Description:
Helices cover 19% and strands 32% of the residues. It has six helices and 15 strands. It has helices at residues 16-27, 45-53, 96-100, 127-136, 185-192, 241-245, and strands at 2-8, 31-37, 64-68, 79-84, 87-92, 107-111, 145-147, 160-162, 165-173, 179-184, 197-201, 205-207, 222-226, 231-236, 252-257. The strands form two sheets. Strands 8, 9, 10, 11, 12, 13, 14 and 15 form an eight-stranded antiparallel beta sheet that branches. A seven-stranded mixed beta sheet has the order 2-1-3-5-4-6-7, sandwiched between helices. Strand 9 and strand 10 form a beta hairpin. The chain is elongated, with a radius of gyration of 20 Å. The mean pLDDT is 94.
Amino acid sequence: MAIITLTTDLGDKDIYQAALKGSIYKLLPAVNIVDITNNVAAFDVQQAAFILKNSFYYFPDGTVHLIGIDTVYNDHTKFLAVKYKNHYFVGADNGIFSLMFKETPEEIVEINIMQDLKFLHFPLADIFVKAACHLAKGGKLNEIGIPVQDIENKMNLQPVIEKNLIKGVVIYIDSFQNVITNITKEFFNSVQQGRKFVLNFKRNETINHLSWHYNEVPVGEKLCLFGISDHLEIAINKGNASGLLGLNLNDKVIIEFQ
């Protein structure tokens, strides 16, 4: 069965998510719709990119990922369908693709499907759905769009090395209130080279040991580890790290090597 995933900021309270799913089922009744999340903060391209880039590869090859972030029509934003690592992505060219992909996609087209006039304010349930269903049925990219080379470029904020320090920032807070930084395991290991370290963050809090799992410390104690995203996390075992430690998006963290 074909799979279409949804990553949107539509939420759960309004009619928009239902309209989107109903539009998909109307065109392709025999499809498996999987919600990655519909609770991305409104228009937050960075958050959506982080979630999708760390989850899409768990799905089978050929999965179509429909991205509903900042998709309202304007004269300057193209709608794209992209093939990357044998997955398909349909979304607005608002920088999200450059934030998600490490390598150049295998194929990119600007979607040229005609829009139904009754969906002028909601192309997500029209143009995006038609493109996603076409691909889920095994259709080719060049049948729904014109090949393009360039996409809107946005850069993820990268950690900085200064002498024996790594300076990073908080880029995501998950539903358990674990605090995720922009420091990847690969980056950390390349700088650490076996040295001891101290992780410093707000309120003069420190951690000097990497944990393998959350239960490695007693309940209520803080820890740091590389989680499922391979980014450095600050957590409290069965606790609210963001609230209790006062850590929020874009707050600085510093790792000092000894």
